[in-house]
Batch of 2 targets.
Target 1
Amino acid sequence: MHRRNLLAGIAFAGVLPVVGSAMAQSGRTMERGKMQALMGGDFATMSSELALKRGSSAAVRTFAKLEISEQAAVAEAFGARPGSAGVSARHQAMLERLQAARGRDFDRMYIDGQIAGHKELLTIHRRYARSGSDPMARGASTVAVPAIETHLAMLMTMQKSVG
């Protein structure tokens, strides 16, 4: 009975998706850098899925489509199913704020969130490209770094136009 209450508490705190995903990697835990990259990618994907529905700008919706497909490719290169890592509590709160936003307010919040998220992902992928233990994922991180830099440039341009 106590174990059931403990598991319910963990799930409520939003930790269970992360723990379950990490443990699914051939019965061993996933290394931290890999999990961080996947969780950041899941946030980018989830917020981009919202952008496809709520974005008022064609540029936002176009970027969202690109982001979803690229994050799916990164997840697969990392040996994970897209969406399997979950998101941090901070990212979940950002997603909830995005769900409440509409129109240009949504576009601004989405772009700001993507800029912050891409800066985090850039740091994570640079580090993983140098010292990650999985050669396939390390290669994906190496390729991801210039793509993330390009995305940041695109997002900064979009930010200026949305105001």
Note: DSSP finds seven helices and no strands in the chain.
Target 2
Amino acid sequence: MTATKNIDKTITSTSYIPKLAAHTATFMAARSKERTFLPATGSHWWLVSFSNPISTEKFLAHLFSIGFYGDIDVRGNEVELQTKHQAEATMINAYCSPEAFPITITNLAAESIYVANDSHALLCNQRNNGALSYAGERLVHMQFSVTPSSWAMLNVLSQVISIHAIVHFDPNGYMVLKASKDEEQRIIHHLESYL
């Protein structure tokens, strides 16, 4: 008999990162007010959204019944988790079916702006949360919508960009990168596979 996976219809989305890249963990940590734990490079990470509080509580009960000892943060009907243990990851994925919620990017737009002078660079550095900007640098401003989570997109981008190229990352759909025209095209080409 073939086993079939039943997706719990009360799960509205699951974002799963099998191994948090340094890029993603760093920018998550910069937004530490959003969670009660410190994201760790190399960890399995999830953001699971449920349609109602009963479903959320059912999931939490399941987690603790299987012996989950990782990090957990609950905000309304969203549960954020991380663990370094493969056995826990396997059990969580069996419950949440992250493959049913692939990364999808829409409304991707990019525009480059050169940093005009030192005053402009200083203002950029005050407003942003990543790498420092300097006069004369080409910054690519990107806007996007991502489901199920922008954090998963940043983790994917870690394969093609250096953490030192990320001037700003906002999981609500905005990112600033240091990039030449060729680098910008390579990044956009990499993201187009998720459009």
Note: The radius of gyration is 18 Å.
